[in-house]
Amino acid sequence: MQPRQPTTRRVTMTDVARAAGVSPMTVSYTYNRPERVSEESRSRVLRTAAALGYPGPDPSARSLRYGVTRTLGVVLGEHLSYAFDDPQAVAFLAGIAEVCAERGYGLLIVPTGTGDEDAGRVVAAPVDAYVVWTTTDDDPALAAACGTRRPVVVHGGPRRDGTTLVGIDNRGAARAVGAEVFATARRPAVLSFPVDRQRDTFVRRGVEPDTVGYPVTRDRLAGYRDAAEELGIDWSEVPVGVCRTNDEAEARSVMRHLLAAAPDLDAVAAMSDRLALAALREAADPVRISGWDDSAVAREHGLTTVAQSLRAQGTACATAALGDPAPDHRDDWRLVRRASTGG
């Protein structure tokens, strides 16, 4: 007779409660009703769960309560109002919503980035699959989604084992638009998205892409650097103004700091059309400016930009999360030359 092979027992809610020195009900509330648990207890439970490798309530047990939910979750990583205020987020969510409507699914937006309760909020969401808006490798909300063993599709990055990634070649697109906007520049600059989960705003010369936590920001900075170096521009001297969000008012403030640091700047590569519009409105002298997304703002103000369809990418994310093959969107972009760079 063959010896019986040992089995690895799944860590349970009771194990977490015992190790954390709390009741099983406190652990349950941490994941399912976090507002009923103190911040101290919630943090202790989540730390203990992570140390023990507990991924959260068993999805099969949850399905006994909820059934198949026929709901798709979107882990936003932004304040909830961003989903309604930002034009590109609106387009992305519209693509997801279209698929959900066609297939009889509901759509649940799970905003994260607010604190220790993020992981519990993601795990507790009664959804069949997740679409995760671009985030960082160290985002606990992404780890929580992956730990549920439900399908996870990530938009824009990071690439993670067991997930599906949907997005364009941001580095290639940034290299193309950078070559256009920096073509005759002597003192170029960049208006950037956030570089990490702290979302600090600052102006710094020569930000190295490898130090950036957000894959989209990292790849676009790398593409701009590629273009600058091919034109003989010293990247270490290029000032980068980092914005906390895709907000025109904040970008105008950052642009003023850029102009204070480099009064003679003559070109700005912005990571969105909104940021580009802020640069256009703050720059007193003729400055070459490029944006990103080819939104209505870009067309109205003659901005050179990168055209992409966030709606199509949202559709691809939703269909992949619901089990279909993910279309390849890496080459789904194009450079649009307009008056802001002399095009």
What does this protein look like?
This protein is of the alpha/beta class and 343 residues long. The protein has two domains: 65-166 and 310-329, Rossmann fold (3-Layer(aba) Sandwich), CATH 3.40.50; 170-308, 3-Layer(aba) Sandwich (Rossmann fold), CATH 3.40.50. Helix content is 42%, strand content 14%. It has helices at 13-20, 24-32, 39-52, 59-66, 82-85, 87-103, 118-124, 140-147, 170-181, 215-230, 248-261, 273-282, 296-301, 310-321, and strands at residues 71-75, 106-110, 129-132, 152-155, 164-166, 188-192, 202-205, 239-242, 267-270, 288-290, 305-308, 333-336. The strands form three sheets. It has a five-stranded parallel sheet with strand order 2-1-3-4-5, with helices on both faces. It is elongated and about 65 Å long. 47% of the residues are buried. The model is unreliable at 1-7 and 63-67 (pLDDT under 50).
| Terminal-residue CA separation | 79 Å
Low-confidence stretches: 1-7, 63-67
| CATH architecture descriptor of the largest domain | 3-Layer(aba) Sandwich
- DSSP strand content: 5-15%
Give the mean pLDDT: 91
Helix content: 40-55%
Q: In total, how many domains does the architecture comprise? A: 2
Q: Briefly note the CATH topology name of the largest domain.
A: Rossmann fold
Note the total helix count.
14
- Rg measurement, Å: 22 Å
Describe the main β-sheet briefly.
5 strands, parallel
CATH class bucket of the largest domain: Alpha Beta
Q: CATH superfamily membership of the largest domain, which one?
A: Response regulator
Strand order of the largest sheet: 2-1-3-4-5
What would the principal axes of the Cα set say about the shape?
elongated
Secondary structure category: alpha/beta
Encode the helix/strand succession as letters: HHHHEHHEHEHEEHEEHEHEHEHEHE
Task: Give a count of the beta strands, DSSP E runs of length 2 or more.
Answer: 12
